[in-house]
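Q&A FORM
Asked by: J.P.
Topic: structure of 2-oxoacid:acceptor oxidoreductase subunit alpha

PROVIDED:
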Amino acid sequence: MAEKLEVKELDQVVVRFSGDSGDGMQLAGNIFSTVSATVGNGISTFPDYPADIRAPQGSLTGVSGFQVHIGAGRVYTPGDLCDVLVAMNAAALKTQYRFAKPQATIIIDTDSFGAKDLEKAQFGTDDYLGEMGIDLDRVVACPLTTMVKDCLAGSGMDNKSVLKCRNMFALGLVCWLFNRDLELVNNYLRDKFAKKPQIAENNIKVVQAGYDYGHNVHAGVPATYRIESKDKVPGRYMDITGNKATAYGLIAAAEKAGMQLFLGSYPITPATDILHELAKHKSCGVKTVQCEDEISGCASAIGASFAGALAATSTSGPGICLKSEAINLAVIDELPLVIIDVQRGGPSTGLPTKSEQTDLLQALYGRNGESPIPVIAATSPTDCFDAVYSAAKIAVEHLTPVILLTDAFIANGSAAWRLPMMEELPAIRPHRVVEEQKGNYTPYERDPETGARYWAVPGQEGYTHILGGLEKDGRTGAISTNPENHDIMCRLRADKVARIPVPDLEVDGDRDDADLLIVGFGSTYGHLYSAMEELRADGHKVALAQFKYINPLPRNTVEVLRRYRKVVVAEQNLGQLAAWLRANVDGFVPEQYNEVKGQPFVVSELVKALASLAKK
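REPLIED BY: S.T.
REPLY: Here is the structure written out as tokens.
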């Protein structure tokens, strides 16, 4: 064995941590991605965990995975297949090996491959590597559990607590493999366990042991690797999930608008982290209420909006169903409200921990009556900040509820995010009543430029008014059943939403001469962009248009869609965006690429399917 390993520089690498849902794979992956983001690498992560609250230990259905793609520059997806697979037990190896490249390095804990472990994982023999066709030369076989026990002998920790540290040994080994600075890991652990410093120090000790193991035995690999950052923009960076970015975006919007932030919510996977995060920020004037059900969460936010707050409610698809009556109250009252829908697999409770884009038509149409609402779809974990900020700006400037669509993939996934400066963010100017209206204010008097009504809050002298669920006379604000008035009010509400200015639809790639235009929306941007780039590298003329603003559509939508001879709409549902575009663009008949698997697109599969369309 060579005395000194070669250190190779890479542009990108994909690492997948996997083990039982109690093995701490999400934490190990999060720490590794955070450290990578801190040194300026581009990252994209994909936490993939089971819906079981606690599956039987060592079972195939209980495996939890965390995949992170690290790059020298910007990274668009978590990667199709991994270069390094950490498998903490036999079930993890059995279920996760399909996500590994043929030449991938496999790190296993040999202590978790006993006879009972192999039986639970449904191996037929004790030659588990041969059974799966895995080359022994690619396997780092480490008695990980034994070494963690030895490392923490005398620490005073009980056996159960010791076993919880196994993930840190795996993390240390991966940090050695990619030349990561352990001081960054140590700082993370000391911060996370600030109230339990001994636990922090024990975990730090195990991380160091994993790093030393790799360094001392060279772990059976020919080289270690380094990924240097390229074109880093100066600023403060952090690894941020989509849900946390959404919470920060709401806080920033409230600060910019000079308003108090209120969130009324009910816990639901995968949106609950927004409630948890906002609850930590009372120092910023944030008020959070965990309500008894979904409709009360939304109704409480409507009450806060009536009182003058920047109000929001967060949920997933099943919760949008339950909130629909209250959302409609905000529509007819024309009150600002940000509704965050973190989409997951359906219908019904469906696939709680998996990701889909299947709530689009529900967001557009899922209320009784003519009930138009602006709809925005975030395109990445970091874009959740910008998207919810835009949603809040539209809500308070145009006095309307706004639905923000994210999904489990970008809500739980993370990316390297440069913290913005407040002065860099667009101004937010709530559309409030003016002095000239005092004493003769009616609630549905409208701004002639935007169609938005003027916002008065209870207690403002001279602006007394009543709002409610019954239709009102557009001039007086009194309850009205007049058919002509109802027709006018429906048209005014629709016109107000249609007139909201949104950015033009941008086209990436061969925008001037593409033979094929790929169209998507929201969180599929990274996968579709990567597929487009691979197709262009293969000599195809391809462009991409990704919708972020869905209602109203960008003003140039018709021009863009009609510019290209062939258009394919790719989405993680059975054709909802395609249906919406056909309804709004006369004669638009696109090709479609649809999947409803609860998993992100696979770039290689996209390339294969889209290449055949490009050749037609």
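FOLLOW-UP: Residues 197-217 form the longest helix (21 residues).
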